[in-house]
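Q: Could you fold this chain for me?
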Amino acid sequence: MSIFDEIDRIMRRWQRFFEDLEKEIDEEFRRLASQQYQSPRRPRFYYYGFEITMGPDGKPVVREFGNVRGRKQGGIEVVDEIEPLTDVVEDDGKIRVVAEMPGVEKEDIKVRLSNDNRTLIISASGKDRKYYKEIPLPAEVIPDKTKASYRNGVLTVELEKKDKGRGGFEIKVE
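A: Sure. Below is the predicted structure, expressed as structure tokens.
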């Protein structure tokens, strides 16, 4: 079997998966639309997306985002908070987290670090949208050196690693 046959097999499997997911989402949307009650907890919109990248081991990695989530017992649920699409970029000594969060004001956004400084927690609550995501960081960071900016619906958080470079203590060889 060639690599192209394997890629074709994987793509057919993903196509079936997304076709099934599309049917489930469509059925859930129709069910929600047919409900006659108006609840303040009912989301005003439905937002779902995914990103497929190649992992370091050569296998595809799928990351989902939005406010439509699969349930463990089957089916889907629509929640108030949107999980934003995020990227974590690690450079020498720094970590940059970029999150797409359109529809909120800068004042609506809260960014904080967990007690162990290894998880970034992003939340926002605007007029029409709510966002929430906990992002595990690849290294411990220095909280005092963290900077965040929000422009054109994109939140960028720059963090400095606690242990820059390869870490450890260099020992001189005699």
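A (continued): The chain has two domains: 1-81, 84-164.
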